[in-house]
């Protein structure tokens, strides 16, 4: 699995470009925590909070956009700014260097940053289950680890060391699995050059289905590699020094994600027409919203992150060699901000 949500593959629209002629643009990052402007009443100055997004302004961030549109951040006295990411912007570095108070990034990238001593802590997550998955045809399905035997698999270099121990544990003869480098789009699977293609169900998966291909999606998480995606990050010092701001920001964000999950059509159109890069298709963004919803929902509520699962994520990353050691979970994450933002309804 790649260290960034879309680093080893192009975006959904890049794939559609091959078929439909769409294009992509990028925006830079910056900003921190200041006090500026006035609240809705005009009597208080709003606290300005910059969030560095882990990728472009696309549907995987629509809950934040809902918070802006519906005034949830304004209700909390927060002037929220969301800076778009891109292939050359690593959100964890932006947050660690105090160019943004908060951000989101790939779970493995964040663990690697913490492993190297960067001042980062996780306080929530957008995706309860990473959309990273293997896609295959229904007439030649890959649903279990045993199904990899005799198959040709397109995957990134980062995915192979994560997949190999799972196959070995499942008793699969590695000689029976052929690996090829994953191309920049899932056309390898579309043309049946490979039996399985590792990518993102909310990106390449949606694009393949829109081409009318009869594919199935098996999440890497369900194959035994636990994973989050787009974990929410800040500096450890901010949890103490800017806790009230973080709680208010997260409370508004939770409301935004609740709204986004309940209104996929409205939010898909909003992303395509207002927030996203030029060229996004409304129907595609609606399809993305519907595809990502089950991966974002949590029994405790949006943006919750579970301590036990994070322990499993850390161990899996260490076992795959992505990090040098098993990191103490309490040095990686905190539920304190989420508990206070949600009124303490989540479990530990």
TrEMBL record:
Annotated SsuA/THI5-like domain ranges read 60-266
Question: Single Gene Ontology BP term?
Answer: thiamine biosynthetic process
State the Gene Ontology terms under molecular function. Answer: metal ion binding; transferase activity
Return the InterPro entries for the record: NMT1/THI5, SsuA/THI5
Catalysed reactions, as listed in the record: N(6)-(pyridoxal phosphate)-L-lysyl-[4-amino-5-hydroxymethyl-2-methylpyrimidine phosphate synthase] + L-histidyl-[4-amino-5-hydroxymethyl-2-methylpyrimidine phosphate synthase] + 2 Fe(3+) + 4 H2O = L-lysyl-[4-amino-5-hydroxymethyl-2-methylpyrimidine phosphate synthase] + (2S)-2-amino-5-hydroxy-4-oxopentanoyl-[4-amino-5-hydroxymethyl-2-methylpyrimidine phosphate synthase] + 4-amino-2-methyl-5-(phosphooxymethyl)pyrimidine + 3-oxopropanoate + 2 Fe(2+) + 2 H(+)
Keyword line:
Iron, Metal-binding, Pyridoxal phosphate, Thiamine biosynthesis, Transferase
Q: Does the keyword NAD apply?
A: no
Q: In which pathway does it act?
A: Cofactor biosynthesis; thiamine diphosphate biosynthesis
Is the Iron keyword given for this protein?
yes
Gene3D superfamilies attached to this UniProt entry: Periplasmic binding protein-like II
Say which domain of life the source belongs to. Bacteria
List the Pfam families. NMT1 (PF09084)
The Swiss-Prot or TrEMBL record describes its family as follows: Belongs to the NMT1/THI5 family.
Its function, per the record, reads:
Responsible for the formation of the pyrimidine heterocycle in the thiamine biosynthesis pathway. Catalyzes the formation of hydroxymethylpyrimidine phosphate (HMP-P) from histidine and pyridoxal phosphate (PLP). The protein uses PLP and the active site histidine to form HMP-P, generating an inactive enzyme. The enzyme can only undergo a single turnover, which suggests it is a suicide enzyme.
Subunit and partners: Homodimer.
Name of the protein: Thiamine pyrimidine synthase
Origin species: Rubrobacter xylanophilus (strain DSM 9941 / JCM 11954 / NBRC 16129 / PRD-1)
Taxon lineage: Bacteria, Bacillati, Actinomycetota, Rubrobacteria, Rubrobacterales
